[in-house]
């Protein structure tokens, strides 16, 4: 099925539903939140009389300006009665709301296709799910408003790390052109997305202790790193490092470590993340470690000759 045909079918599901639930992923970032917000307002704007709710939580502080009403887990009644759409989430275990059954749900995503879904638009072809939704809007000629524009822009800006990630293409900039042409206040949006001085200071201190082991630069942050700053911390760490692979061990409130791994060119870090129980994209992936005892093993595994090619 061609992408335009998938867009049409996806929207037919929306048209046929009275209630719609949108689901974000655990440790949510700007793409899952921004896409969910944009899709919610897109549906309300283009299909009147729909009841649309987002089910999720723990969103980054600097992106909460997107949220127009409190977001939490939806009620059991609404959950059972609604069409379920999962956004920017590759697998069932990554969905914040654990009640979701993929085979009864739609998925709009930009990760490699995994599992069985009722209907899916996915695949690792776009740098952000927000770009995919922008493509849908352009293709179906849907109406947009400020909420849609800001949600999509946040999704694209954060998941491309300001256009530095793999898969950024002319289409990515065409998507941003579309948003700007339709009234996106870009300068004001960037101002609203800013981190606080306290958050910036935390990041600055954390990235000072970077170390290098062959093709890997890595940091260990033993203070709890909240989801508010995990993504911008990693982005700044990558920016100031010049090895091919970047690895950040970030302590979570649960006591274990969120391991974020990035590469700059042709090193497929998703293979590393999968080996250690995680997953993700070619240049951007992650996994969890219960402690720091395996750092040497992880560094050695990354530096194997077969992965350097």
TrEMBL record:
Matching InterPro entries: DHH_sf (IPR038763), DHHA1_dom (IPR003156), Oligoribo/pAp-PDE_c-di-AMP_PDE (IPR051319)
Protein name as catalogued: DHHA1 domain-containing protein
Alphabetical list of Pfam families matching this protein: DHHA1
The organism's taxonomic lineage, starting at the top: Bacteria, Bacillati, Mycoplasmatota, Mycoplasmoidales, Metamycoplasmataceae
DHHA1 domain ranges (all copies): 218-304
Gene3D superfamilies in UniProt: 3.10.310.30, inorganic pyrophosphatase (n-terminal core)
Domain of life: Bacteria
């Amino acid at each position: 099925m061609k992408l335009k045909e998938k867009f049409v079918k996806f929207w037919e599901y929306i048209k046929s539903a009275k209630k719609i639930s949108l689901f974000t992923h655990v440790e949510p970032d700007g793409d899952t939140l921004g896409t969910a917000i944009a899709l919610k307002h897109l549906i309300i704007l283009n299909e009147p009389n729909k009841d649309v709710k987002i089910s999720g939580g723990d969103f980054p502080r600097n992106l909460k300006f997107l949220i127009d009403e409190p977001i939490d887990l939806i009620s059991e009644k609404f959950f059972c009665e609604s069409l379920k759409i999962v956004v920017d989430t590759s697998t069932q275990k990554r969905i914040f709301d654990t009640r979701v059954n993929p085979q009864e749900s739609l998925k709009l995503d930009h990760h490699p296709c995994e599992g069985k879904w009722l209907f899916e638009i996915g695949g690792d072809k776009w740098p952000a799910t927000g770009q995919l939704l922008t493509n849908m809007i352009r293709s179906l000629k849907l109406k947009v408003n400020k909420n849609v524009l800001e949600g999509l822009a946040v999704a694209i800006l954060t998941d491309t790390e300001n256009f530095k990630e793999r898969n950024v293409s002319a289409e990515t900039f065409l998507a941003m052109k579309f948003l700007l042409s339709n009234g996106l206040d870009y300068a004001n949006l960037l101002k609203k997305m800013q981190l606080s001085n306290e958050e910036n200071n935390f990041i600055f201190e954390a990235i000072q202790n970077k170390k290098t082991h062959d093709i890997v630069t890595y940091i260990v942050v033993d203070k709890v790193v909240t989801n508010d700053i995990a993504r911008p911390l990693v982005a700044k760490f990558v920016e100031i490092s010049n090895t091919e692979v970047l690895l950040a061990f970030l302590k979570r409130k649960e006591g274990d470590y969120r391991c974020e791994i990035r590469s700059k060119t042709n090193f497929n870090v998703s293979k590393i993340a999968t080996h250690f129980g995680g997953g993700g994209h070619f240049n951007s992936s992650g996994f969890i470690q219960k402690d720091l005892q395996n750092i040497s093993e992880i560094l050695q595994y990354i530096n194997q000759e077969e992965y350097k090619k």
